[in-house]
Write a structure and sequence with these properties.
There is one protein chain. This protein is of the alpha/beta class and 296 residues long. It contains ten helices and 13 strands. The structure holds adenosine-5'-triphosphate (ATP). Adenosine-5'-triphosphate is lined by residues 163, 182, 217-220, 222-223, 237-238, 240, 242, 245, 247-250, 252, 274, 277-278, 281. Pathway: Carbohydrate metabolism; D-ribose degradation; D-ribose 5-phosphate from beta-D-ribopyranose: step 2/2. It catalyses: D-ribose + ATP = D-ribose 5-phosphate + ADP + H(+). Residues 2-291 form the Carbohydrate kinase PfkB domain. The active site is at residue 250.
Length: 296
């Protein structure tokens, strides 16, 4: 059964520096490394590498970064017929990494801003036959709202990874099966300060507010799911030495979607997400760190 990931595609421009520059200061850093990223493209690649039938619907610019994204998706087996080219630059994340592993990131959405309801209508043939549509918050909210309504109407399973953290309107929440969030994002959607409630309690509250099911990722602590009947299922993370957690959340979401599309339930989807994310954190990069099915 097929997965359509609708979302962002960004070039990650990474420079390592000894420390963050102060205002008005110029620092010399390492060689520039440009890698394919963006939450939508990452999740599509993660699912594609696992052998799932995946199409990506998004937008890049007519530039080298757009070509980089297209190549990365296609080499993971992801169909890109629904990828438009806009007269704006490909989305880009300027990432400065300090020796403690901490990142400072500025994102320029560029062509991702063209992932509009109009573009969705143009590519209706691509997503209307999907088993699952997966979205995130790096494209305009009106597009998420539009697709949530379309999926509800047509009986297409809608998975929203509400990242980066932003509020989720009630009608969107009601379509999510599951809503996938980390702890910070969960607290923001519930509307309480971070750490104000236990993750399972946040999950139950999200279910009360209308989500059909909820998955909360907890970094090295693992993840939990709140099933439609309110049952809470937890899954520990694997004990591994993490070298780079960039894109771990996206690896988890892409792998979950692959499991759900192959007919597995949410518990099994958590297990596959955990396995794939554990491999991803032990390698550098986002898409470059994701395993193929035969590596698991
Ligand atoms: P990011 O934004 O960095 O991609 P996220 O906040 O969306 O991440 P996390 O909760 O940090 O997502 O991680 C997702 C999943 O990846 C976790 O549920 C866990 O299974 C796995 N994971 C993350 N960090 C580690 C780690 N240090 N060791 C093992 N597994 C990890």
């Amino acid at each position: 059964m097929s997965i359509v990931v609708i979302g962002s595609a960004n070039a990650d421009l990474v420079i390592e520096v000894d420390r963050r520059p102060a205002g008005g200061e110029t620092l010399i850093g390492s060689d520039l490394v440009i890698t394919p990223g963006g939450k939508g493209a990452n999740q599509a690649v993660a699912a594609g590498l696992l052998g799932a039938d995946v199409a990506f619907v998004g937008c890049v610019g007519a530039d080298g970064n757009g070509d980089l994204l297209r190549r990365s998706l296609e080499s993971a087996g992801v169909r890109t017929a629904g990828m438009a080219t806009a007269d704006r630059p490909t989305g880009c994340a300027l990432i400065v990494v300090t020796p403690d592993g901490e990142n400072s990131i500025v994102v320029s959405p560029g062509a991702n801003g063209r992932v509009t309801p109009d573009l969705m209508a143009e590519h209706e043939a691509e997503w209307s036959r999907a088993f699952i549509v997966v979205m995130q918050h790096e494209v305009p909210l009106e597009t998420v709202t539009y697709m949530a309504a379309q999926c509800r109407e047509r009986g297409v399973r809608f998975v929203l990874n509400a990242a980066p953290a932003a509020d989720v309107p009630g009608d969107v929440l009601a379509a999510c099966d599951p809503l996938v969030v980390n702890e910070t994002e969960a607290a923001l959607v519930v509307g309480v300060p971070a750490d104000a409630a236990e993750p399972a309690e946040l999950g139950r509250q999200l279910l009360d507010r209308g989500a059909r099911s909820v998955v909360i990722t907890l970094g090295a602590q693992g993840s939990l799911a709140v099933l439609p009947d309110g049952t809470v299922v937890t899954h520990p993370a694997e004990r591994v030495t993490a070298v780079d957690t960039t894109g771990a959340g996206d690896a988890f979401v892409g792998a979950m979607a692959a499991a759900l599309a192959s007919g597995q339930n949410i518990e099994h989807a958590l297990a596959l997400g955990t396995r794939v994310a554990a491999v991803a954190v032990q390698r550098r990069g986002a898409q470059a760190s994701y395993p193929r099915r035969d590596e698991l």
